[in-house]
């Protein structure tokens, strides 16, 4: 008779806790299913996590400054924008808003009124040999901080309610669960930004009500509860929350006095937060022959008003894979032009993995000299399905035309620690043992106009997603990814 992994009552309580606390995806019939999750947390050395908490806000500080350096963005990303149609459209919008370097030098450009609110997630893997290294920057639609906090709270509940079972499946017998205040810290940052914008208009709005936060979302998406958890926290702080797609905003955004952004039927808008806008389909209108044109102008309009905005076009460009590569290849001394000290710059360099541009010379090196299994081929896409591994890299390189090279790059492949003991995944109210679970940890940061906006010098919580080592894609929505939390030893 097979050994029971968990008593049914434990699984039932855990899944009900998850759904009750919003750790769920919406189904087509408006029911909900719980997100898959690990029964016990991943383990990391305390000093390693402390280093990530220290260095990640420095990365955000760097990216925040780079995102406002229009000359640098346009110079460095022009080749990539020519090779990638979507980023070409983003660069076109950026040029419309900021003008060219020549136009700026001649003083012909009126700078956009939007105020940058950088809500960023920096994703890492803890490599077996080199320690934690950055996988990617996420500066637009950098979500799931609420799920990160709830996963941490779920593990505390299981540790307290079912201590024997929790200890049995924990990777460390002695360890400390790490608090995660992702919801609270992001809500605090957004509220502060909203109230600052609102205060700018107090002279023309003597009877101000609650500040207003607009979340730009995708139509008919299933990951709505993570978004609603953030909205609930904002509502508790006295902020009015509104959800709209780009298509819904197109005919309803209006211009008020002194650059005030207005929304028909709602009134003045203080913060706009994009949970959409990282792919062509977010801007697509059914009757439009050219993708992104009309709704791209809606995004341009937002940037031309005095509103706290995440993500600005500059932020999206600055967190692209190509800009990650550019910054990685630069010496630490170069970061000083964006306000970092040499000590801060050297700290950032400790977590950047090697990256290479795709060109004929790099391709020849890859085939003739590289350990091909130790590299990943990436394009500019967000989410799963945009990485090529192993023997498939050569096949993909052979299929690319030279004018496509700048949309791709090579990155050192990271081999994270597998858990020392078997782990337990809870999916669709059933337990499955995973013998080779590995984890990816994302740290959130919040900066407004270059200023850290949290209780922890800009750090704003974490998100951990785990998957079997044999799986290349570890998304929570599809594939074998599961929510997780952190224990330090």
TrEMBL record:
Q: Show the InterPro entries listed in the entry.
A: Glutathione_synthase, Glutathione_synthase_a-hlx, Glutathione_synthase_C_euk, Glutathione_synthase_N_euk, GSH-S_sub-bd_sf, GSH_synth_subst-bd, PreATP-grasp_dom_sf
The UniProt keywords, alphabetically, are: ATP-binding, Glutathione biosynthesis, Ligase, Magnesium, Metal-binding, Nucleotide-binding
Pathway field of the UniProt record reads: Sulfur metabolism; glutathione biosynthesis; glutathione from L-cysteine and L-glutamate: step 2/2
Q: Listed GO cellular component terms?
A: cytosol
Which principal EC class is assigned to this enzyme? Answer: ligase
Cite the EC number.
Answer: 6.3.2.3
Which SUPFAM superfamilies does this one have? Glutathione synthetase ATP-binding domain-like, PreATP-grasp domain
Q: Provide the GO MF annotations for this entry.
A: ATP binding; glutathione binding; glutathione synthase activity; metal ion binding
Superkingdom of the organism of origin: Bacteria
Which cofactors must be present for this protein to function? Mg(2+)
Ranges of residues in domain Glutathione synthase substrate-binding: 212-318
Q: Which PANTHER family does the UniProt entry name for this protein?
A: GLUTATHIONE SYNTHETASE (PTHR11130:SF0)
Record family assignment: Belongs to the eukaryotic GSH synthase family.
**Name under which the protein is recorded:** glutathione synthase
Its organism's taxonomic lineage begins at:
Bacteria, Pseudomonadati, Pseudomonadota, Gammaproteobacteria, Vibrionales
């Amino acid at each position: 008779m097979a050994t029971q992994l968990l008593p049914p009552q434990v699984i039932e309580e855990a899944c009900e806790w998850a759904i009750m606390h919003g750790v769920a995806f919406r189904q087509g019939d408006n029911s909900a299913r719980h997100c898959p999750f690990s029964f016990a947390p991943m383990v990391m050395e305390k000093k390693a996590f402390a280093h990530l908490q220290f260095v990640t806000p420095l990365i955000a500080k760097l990216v925040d400054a780079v995102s406002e350096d229009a000359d640098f963005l346009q110079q460095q990303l022009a080749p990539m924008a020519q090779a990638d149609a979507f980023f070409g459209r983003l660069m076109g919008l950026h040029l419309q808003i900021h003008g060219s370097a020549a136009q700026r030098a001649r003083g012909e450009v009126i700078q956009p009124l939007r105020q940058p609110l950088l809500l960023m997630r920096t994703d890492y893997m803890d490599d077996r040999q080199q320690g934690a290294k950055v996988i990617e920057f996420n500066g637009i639609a950098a979500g799931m901080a609420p799920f990160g906090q709830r996963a941490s709270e779920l593990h505390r509940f299981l540790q307290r309610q079912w201590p024997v079972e929790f200890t049995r499946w924990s990777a460390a017998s002695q360890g400390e669960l790490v608090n995660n205040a992702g919801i609270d810290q992001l809500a605090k940052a957004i509220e502060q930004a909203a109230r600052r914008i609102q205060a700018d208009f107090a002279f023309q709005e003597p009877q101000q009500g609650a500040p207003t936060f607009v979340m730009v979302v995708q139509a008919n998406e299933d990951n709505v509860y993570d978004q609603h958890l953030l909205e609930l926290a904002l509502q508790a702080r006295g902020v009015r929350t509104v959800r709209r797609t780009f298509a819904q905003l197109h005919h309803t955004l209006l211009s008020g006095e002194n650059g005030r952004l207005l929304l028909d039927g709602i009134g003045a808008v203080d913060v706009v937060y994009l949970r959409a806008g990282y792919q062509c389909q977010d801007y697509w209108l059914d009757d439009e022959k050219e993708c992104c044109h009309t709704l791209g102008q809606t995004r341009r309009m937002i940037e031309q008003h005095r509103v706290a905005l995440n993500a600005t076009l500059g932020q999206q460009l600055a967190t692209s894979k190509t800009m990650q590569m550019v910054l990685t290849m630069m010496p630490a001394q170069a970061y000083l032009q964006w306000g970092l000290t040499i000590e801060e710059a050297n700290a950032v360099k400790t977590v950047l993995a090697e990256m290479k541009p795709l060109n004929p010379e790099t391709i020849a090196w890859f085939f003739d000299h590289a350990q091909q299994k130790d590299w990943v081929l990436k394009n500019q896409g967000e989410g799963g399905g945009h990485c090529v591994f192993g023997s498939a890299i050569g096949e993909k390189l052979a299929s690319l035309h030279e004018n496509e090279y700048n949309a791709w790059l090579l990155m050192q492949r990271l081999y994270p620690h597998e858990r020392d003991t078997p782990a337990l995944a809870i999916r669709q109210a059933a337990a499955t043992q995973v013998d080779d679970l590995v984890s990816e940890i994302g740290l959130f940061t919040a900066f407004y106009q270059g200023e850290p906006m949290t209780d922890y010098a800009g750090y704003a919580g974490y998100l951990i997603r785990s998957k079997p080592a044999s799986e290349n894609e570890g998304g929570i929505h599809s594939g074998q990814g599961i929510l997780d939390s952190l224990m330090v030893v």
